[in-house]
Design brief:
By secondary structure, the chain is an all-alpha fold. The chain has a single domain, classed as ABC transporter involved in vitamin B12 uptake, BtuC. The protein contains 15 helices and no strands. Helix 4 runs antiparallel to helix 7 and helix 13 packs across helix 14. The longest helix has 36 residues.
Length: 347
Amino acid sequence: MKERSMTAILAVILLILAFLSLFVGVINLDPASLLAGDMEQWGVFLVSRLPRLLAILCTGVGMSVAGLIMQQLCMNKFVSPTTGATISSAQLGILLALLFMPESTLWGRAVFAFAAAILGTWIFVWFIQRVQFKDVVMVPLVGIMFGNVIGGVTNYLAYKYEMTQALSSWLVGHFSLVLRGRYEIVYLVVPLVILAFVFANHFNIVGMGKDFSRNLGVPYLLVLFLGLTIAAMITASVVVVVGSISYIGLIVPNIVSMFKGDRIRGALIDTALFGAIFVLVCDMTGRIMIAPYELPIELIVGIVGSLLFIGLLFYRLKHGRKAVRLKNLWDGGCRASAGSVDGGESS
């Protein structure tokens, strides 16, 4: 009941914030005018506000679930699309599409982004699996360095072929250009998240190691690459539409695991809901802070995410994985307190 109540609370908060976000922006929308049938207000609502809200929800849900999958498969709580070179690889794929297919549509660029993101993520995991001594901090640092190498190649090609301005839309994440007809690719997040939920138990087993998976009859490599492919495709679909948004897949799963534990099936729904809430709050903050102008969501998420990342880093190094189960610690503390009270009364 406690777990379901937490899910219900997150769902209610998300519904309230989603409704409020529809009426936050430069152009004032009035619910009464919408109900009265004002065509101008309905045009803004259908062309801009509703597509933006749907893109925000898909981004928050998708990036959070992608981070949860990568953390479980890599057996490291600091691995995510940001620290696993997935976002950098997707940006390189978009640049290659602009270079070799300058007249390509958004879907054509998405194909290049999918291929590059999948390949970059596979290479990262292949590399860390061959590192003999894997420290909890070393693995994400390797991913960050690998991502910087890919980013350096991307910037070099962009400068060389004068594509920096064309690529700039995908280097900084923002929802200001999300309009009807330009964001529908992000809907791919929905079937991919459903697929992740179907294979959640398999990801849990693979996350316990190769030998453990083989003993239970689970094909280790097949499930590993399936999970990585799902995470990479989710990330690429978001990057193509919104651009680069860091830290969501890193911060959200870690915060949720503090209350729900490390099982994907048990934490996936709450991770998706909390990820959507996190992105929605950051986007509304960017719209309100310097209104009528707007701050890119990458700036808001980057500031908040970097602070939370440092805090989580020290927390994990000090307490490890066991300390994240705050509910169990609370229950244990309550039982210990009750025991001491009973012992005092009996004495």
